[in-house]
Design brief:
The longest helix is centred in the first third of the chain and has 29 residues. The protein contains 14 helices and 20 strands. It has four domains: 88 residues, no CATH class; 100 residues, Glutaredoxin; 182 residues, Class I glutamine amidotransferase (GATase) domain (Rossmann fold, 3-Layer(aba) Sandwich); 31 residues. By secondary structure, it is of the alpha/beta class. The strands form five sheets. Strands 6-5-7-8-20-19-16-13 form an eight-stranded mixed β-sheet, sandwiched between helices. Helices cover 38% and strands 21% of the residues. It starts with a helix and ends with a helix.
């Protein structure tokens, strides 16, 4: 290649680099870029014309052709890798092989996020230098990635509080330990705990377009909704419902014996005084109109509700169900809370509950299905294990029936099989203490009551998400199996590898 050709090619390169730098710095295409591009083309053309004989000879050489073929193959491979990576980033599939499916969203979360018809903006507020922020950001990014895999409408933005004080002030953020806000169509909800349960619960709140109303009956010695100090109050339940955007109201049937039209759910929580007949008639009329009723009654305290409960196909047993445990003295009765680990696998309220989880009750009574009630279907939601006993008195003396007992039932159908009536839903619990301040947040009690109310309010997508616990896989070997494993694998395998290595060494040495 001639000296003039090399200088011309150098100027062409300088012109192209100048054009690229100017375009990058300014950010827009300016007239000078055209000048640089024209100079680059001019010098490149000059090089080709001046050294055309050299270039012709160079490109017809065998080594050049082979080099160009190899270069083209490399370019094609790079292009293929780029296309594969691009498509893999846009369309990909993941598999979760963990036993508890801890790396996969629950079906409820997937259904909810796929129903989004507008962008869901997720803001993670933090401050630089705060301890633990990086770990929180990484954990939250991994969680949100699962939602983004299901819907492109989920948008995540990390906001440094000091860099965006205007946005922090708008959302009322005054700390940087990792505060998260969800914004959907102008409706916002704040969460501070990074897990699927809390995020999906907040997602439900911002996507809900209407507010459901829940009425608690009063005037019969029911548990106090405003009592936050006593263990047996219901203030924790009330706060939890209001945090889930339910409207909680009182229902004094003795003053106005008619359930209001805006009642989505009516709850009777542990009455200690009898309902009058006209009050029971008001509840029955509500069910005939397609109402949703939750009744929690203590043993031997049906308070005039037993007839209504019988009409929906459930019989109160008026006993005391306790767990039986093995002790050094033999079998004994556990006089603490009664654990119920058996759940209906098909009902939407309990089908997400794990096999190793349970609900807790305090001296509950058993429930029994009444056969032959036309137009009504009864599903046993919660049962105790088979090692349970039911006593006829609180002293836990005398003969006790053994077996598994239903503690929570759901009845659905038409009132009195009336074709003109609308479909009703009644959930009956043989205990009220599992809803109280003391026991609400123990084990699955919170999930049971929230899921029940969501189902009664006909908000299936509000069914709460039970946290997934990682499960360990245990390898249990008997003495015989361990001996077989030791002498059939652990000892022979290294000896076999050693023998092969020695054989190869000797063979190569004598070759």
């Amino acid at each position: 290649m001639s000296k003039l050709g090399k200088i011309s090619l150098l100027f062409a390169g300088i012109s192209l680099v100048s054009m690229s730098i100017i375009r990058y710095i300014i950010g827009v295409w300016v007239p000078f870029c055209w000048v640089s591009l024209a100079l680059a083309i001019f010098f490149l053309a000059l090089t080709i014309v001046w050294d055309r004989h050299f270039l012709k000879e160079f490109f017809t050489m065998k080594t050049t052709k082979q080099g160009m073929s190899m270069g083209m193959l490399i370019l094609l491979m790079l292009a293929l890798l780029i296309v594969v990576n691009y498509l893999g980033g846009k369309h990909y599939k993941t598999w979760d092989f963990s036993t508890a499916q801890t790396n996969t969203l629950s079906p409820q979360s997937i259904q909810l996020v796929k129903s989004l018809n507008s962008d869901l903006k997720v803001y993670f507020f933090y401050k630089k230098g705060v301890e633990g922020n990086e770990d929180n950001r990484r954990s939250f990014r991994e969680l949100i990635k699962k939602y983004q895999d299901e819907s492109p409408r989920v948008q995540l933005e990390f906001v440094e509080v000091n860099e965006r004080p205007d946005l922090a002030k708008e959302f009322g953020v005054d700390k940087g330990s990792g505060v998260v806000f969800l914004d959907y169509k102008g409706r916002r909800n704040r969460i501070e705990k990074i897990d699927e349960q809390e995020f999906t619960s907040a997602l439900v709140k911002v996507t809900r377009t209407s507010t459901k109303t829940i009425y608690f009956t009063v005037g019969h010695g029911e548990k106090n909704l405003d009592d936050a100090k006593e263990a047996l109050g219901l203030n924790s339940l009330k706060s939890m419902l209001e945090n889930n955007r339910y409207t909680v109201k009182m229902l004094p049937l003795v003053q106005a014996p008619k359930v209001p039209a805006d009642a989505d759910v009516v709850i009777v929580a542990g009455p200690s005084q009898s309902f009058q007949e006209f009050e029971v008639n008001a509840l029955e009329d509500y069910l005939k109109r397609g109402g949703s009723l939750f009744i929690a009654v203590e043993p031997e305290m049906s308070m005039g509700l037993d007839k209504l409960i019988k009409k929906v196909g459930i019989q109160l047993q008026n006993n005391y169900v306790m767990n039986v445990v093995d002790t050094v003295m033999g079998k004994g009765v556990n006089q603490g809370p009664t654990a119920a680990p058996i759940f209906s696998p098909t009902n939407q309220i309990t089908k997400s509950f794990g096999q190793n989880e349970f609900t807790l009750f305090r001296y509950p009574q058993g429930l029994k299905k009444i056969e032959g009630v036309e137009g009504v279907t009864v599903d046993e939601l919660v049962r105790t294990a088979a090692n349970s006993a039911a006593f006829n008195n609180i002293a836990l003396k005398g003969d006790a029936a053994q077996g598994s007992f239903a503690l929570v039932d759901e009845a659905t159908g038409k009132w009195q099989n009336d074709a003109k009536a609308k479909d009703f839903t009644v959930i009956v619990a043989g205990d009220v203490d599992f809803m109280t301040n003391q026991m609400l947040y123990q084990n699955l009690n919170r999930d049971l009551i929230l899921n029940s109310i969501a189902a009664l309010a006909k908000e299936e997508n509000l069914i709460s998400i039970t946290p997934k616990e990682p499960q360990s896989t245990q390898l249990l070997l008997t003495e015989t199996k361990f001996s077989v494993f030791l002498f059939a694998f652990i000892i022979p395998f290294p000896i076999l590898l050693l023998g092969i290595s020695i054989g190869l060494f000797v063979k190569r040495r004598n070759a």
